[in-house]
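Hey,

The postdoc asked me to send both predictions to you directly instead of through the lab channel. I've kept everything plain text so nothing gets mangled by the mail client. Protein one:
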Amino acid sequence: MRVLGIDCGSRVTGYGVIDSDGADCVFVQCGVVRVKPSDPLPLRLKNIHNAVTEVIRAFQPDTAAFESLFHASNVQSALKLGHARGVCMVAAAEANLAIFEYSPAEVKSAVTGYGRAEKVQVQQMVCALLKLTVGPERYDASDALAVAICHVHTSRVVSHYAYSKTTGGQI
């Protein structure tokens, strides 16, 4: 399975692509989409959408995983983030990808074992899990990889639970 993880932002959106057999995760690519903060919001959203669409075309993921919205102290920032998530989700939906969302605490917990881990801890664990000698340059990219890893770990547990319920087995 190929998973695209996306950490949305209205100025910088991180993406990470991994392959997984359900147990191990293998790094494919990661990066960031940067838009000019001075551009009007509609143009920034268009550029984010186009860039994510291009990432999807280039890497052909099977599924997309997003970090869900978190509490923001600034309403305007939260709205802009919501718009950015929306255009990224539209890009994934246009490619007919299955879309999943995980809270920041779920992502951190799946990767580090602690739901309040700092960004540097998440990046270190992403590097360890993907056997990377050098971490992504930006936390946006390592956070996106963490979202993808979270999806693999979560879907493995959900699949096992669904299988156990179907067969009458216990976890």
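Protein two:
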Amino acid sequence: MAHDIPLGRDIAYPREYDSGLLFPISRRLARDEIGIADGALPFVGHDRWYAYELSWLDTRGKPQMATATFAVPADSPELIESKSLKLYLNSLNASRFDDAETVRVTIAADLSLAAGAEVAVAFGVPVATQATNEDNEVSIDDIAIDIDDYGPPNASYLSIADATTVDECLRSDLLKSNCPVTGQPDWATLRLRYRGPRIDRAGLLRYLVSFRDHAEFHEQCVERIFVEVLQRCRPDALSVEARYTRRGGLDINPWRATPGMAPPAPGRELRQ
């Protein structure tokens, strides 16, 4: 698939607004591989993007600057390839708009058309914060284990530690995968909230590290983690969110959860 995408090559810097730069990719391609059927999604969710390099010209030609948040629903038929979104946003740099609201409405319309569903667009991004013990989450990164498996993702590491029902949030800053278009590394903080039998933490850590050499889009990695944890560990409720670090002025924060789980509050890691 990646060799058909014209985004792994040098592309001229866009000199005028061009919504045609957006490159949608069918979500179905990766979902078929992990057994998710069209029309029967086992999750709800969204892909929250933070854009840090947004600019345009006002009617007098004076540059304007902003940041923005885009929320793409998980049930949209298409995801939007990140380099194409960067190129699209760059195409606004030399274009004149009546006001900021016109820019926001234009971006929302273009992203919605590309995704095949309504995309919410708002100016601004959350303040970056450091996680604390008050967040009721437990890091699994300090578990003392030997690891020598870096891909492909190995769900056999996932298991239930015991039958005790718990309600907890496990966190890891060690998730890494690779972009299937450019081969560049993608780094993320992952939060796994669940209610159900206690998950074996060492096995979960080994599983997450096994994504290290894996090439897959951010959204697809999160869906794979959600589905495989749900199948192997049988929680009654599950929420998986990955906050990926910034690349090209953008970061992506996919979230998938069983219906009824509250969405995570908009947030941003210090390293984003």
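Summary for protein two, as requested: The CA atoms of residues 104 and 121 lie 6 Å apart.

Thanks,
C.
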